[in-house]
Each structure stands twice: as C-alpha cells, then as structure tokens.
Amino acid sequence: AEYMGANRQAGQMTHKVAIVGSGNWGSVISIIAGENVLKRPDLFHSEVRMWVFEEILESEDSRFSGRKLTEVINEFHENPKYLPGKSLPENVVADPDVIHSVADADLLVFVVPHQFLDRILSQIHPHVKPNAVAISLIKGISFDEKGMVLISDVINKVLGIECCVLMGANVASQVADGDPAESTIGYRTRDSANLFHALFDKPRFRINCVKDVEGVELCGALKNIVAIAAGFCDGLGFQDNTKAAIVRVGLIEMIRFATHFFPPGDPQTYLESCGVADLITTCYAGRNRKVAEAFVKTGRPIEELEDEMLAGQKLQGTLTAKEVYPILVREGLLPRFPLFRLVYEILFAGLPAAQIVDALEPLQV
Q1: Count of CB atoms situated within 10 Å of the CB of 206
Q2: Which end of the chain, N or C, is less packed with Cβ atoms under 10 Å?
Q3: What is the pLDDT of residues 144-157, one digit of tens each?
Q4: Which of 223, 243, 314, 322 is catalytic?
Q5: How far apart are CA 363 and CA 365, in angstroms?
C-alpha cells in the first residue's frame, strides 16, 4: 500500500516519518503525525509508514473478522483492535514488514512495548539511514551486562543515531477524543527537538521541549511503579488522602532514583507534563492502576489479569518494578526506596497488599 498523495518533487528535502508500533498509543500518535505532516509539506514527506505486528482479527464486525490487521487499517483507515472507532488519516500506511517500514525514514518514532525492542532493533539496524533521528515513546528501563540503560541509549547504541524521548500525561483514548493535553520532549540537540515539535505539536496536544533526556525518560518509566501502588490503595478501599500520600512518596522516590543514577538532572523536569502531571494521570486513570486494583480485589496472579483485562497490551509497571528491585539491592539502596521495594514484594514475594501503607513511615535520616 502507498499513499497516493505522496510528494515526489525533484530535489525536495523533506523528512520521511516511520512509526514503529501500532498499539493504542502508537495508533493515536499516527493520527497526530499523519495530520501534521500534511500541514508542513516544507518539512515532511506526506506519507507516514506505520509498522504493524501482523495478526488475524477476531471481530464481531464482519468487515474485519478473519482479515489481516494491516489490510483492515489500509482499507478502512481504522485500527479496530487497538483504537476502535477512531479514523486514521489516509496518508498513514500500515506495513507488516518492519525493515521496509523504516528503510527510507529520516524520523523514527518508537512506540512498542519495551520487551520487544531489542529484537526489532537487531532486525532494522542494517537498514536505518545513518543520519536518521529517533524518538522513543517507550516507558521502561533496559539492562545490559553493566547494569541499567535508558531505552533512548539502547536505540542510540544499536542504531548509532540520536534519540529523543516523548513522555507526558497522555491517556491515549483521551488524546484520541481530542481533549486538550500536553506532553514533554526530552532532547540533546535543538534541531531534533524542533523537528519532533513540528511533528507532534497541535492546538490540543501541546509539546514542551526540555534538554533533559534522562529526567524525562525516567519519569515515564518510574511513574508506572507508583501507579501500581495507587492501584493497591484503590483495591484496599482507601480513599483520596491515602492515595495522595502514596503518590507524593512515589514522586520523591522517582526524583531520588533519577538523581542517584543519572546526576545532576534538572529538578524543573518533574514539574513538566512528563513528571507530576503524568504521575497524577497514571495513578488515577492508567492501566497499571486498574490491574493492580483487580490484583488486590481478586487475589489472582498479575499475569493472568494482564492477559484478561488489557486485550493484548502490556503492563509496564510490573516489569519496571521487577527490573528496578535488583538494582536497589545491588547498590544497597532498598531502605531509601520503601515504596519501590513494597510494590515489588507485594507483586512477586507474597507480601500482603495492605503493607503498601508502610511506605508512608518517615525515613530514618
């Protein structure tokens, strides 16, 4: 499939966009990018390629049932599995071949669950333009033999290209509904920030750019651990005061973690959309909160609930909690991170969920 309005003027230096991922948030971002590239033909090629993990749809809608997801997206301009009922722009072209999707792209937008990233990067790395620039919308932390690595650094290292990040208080369905929202781009070079600002900023989706990739990215990853704790509060029947206290402690631990492992950091970052705003949204509306509440109420394994409640999407909070815990153990830091410790031990070591309130005890200084 190819978008028929693709601009082909000789010598025109426009940036071609590829989106790697097509889940709920990936589909919403494709709407924003698809609309914005058409408004800036001076900057962008008019076609946006979106890599779609191919699957055969099961649907009550006879138009979709039994068909390939990419075919349905390209014919009906809708992603009925991950963003039902919302129209995708016609210049967003679904592609089941990840290598073909990125081969001639100048701007790569990564929006896949972080457990799939390594495999994708190893597939595409020989085919990415050497002067391409990436942006990661992936919320999580990665690891190598030396310890913790940011997702943006993994992308930078494997592909050899600059990688910005975009994080914010962005419940995907609400952005798709057109409710006013904002987000934060963390960048290293201003030119890249300007390009991605032009790609994503709209009157109802405002983007602020800050020169703090690490701070922005860590906010996006760590707030999901706090959201699990907030879900425990809801499952236990605690009210607003308790949850607000848990969120406050969580914010302190997020800042403490970031400044310990990636000093010096910029304290202002936590006042951006990626910081306190995203934390609030996730602790009151996100999928991590919802599944953690069900975990307490049902007593069933978190993996089972994830499969049942999320229709193929992945929980990032449980994964990040599992990854952060051994780092804190190794560095002897567990006493300084009671909330992160308790979330892990409730999820994976059989600790009763009611003990989450132990995080509210003052630290011994």
Answers
A1: 16
A2: C
A3: 777 788 999 999 99
A4: 223
A5: 6
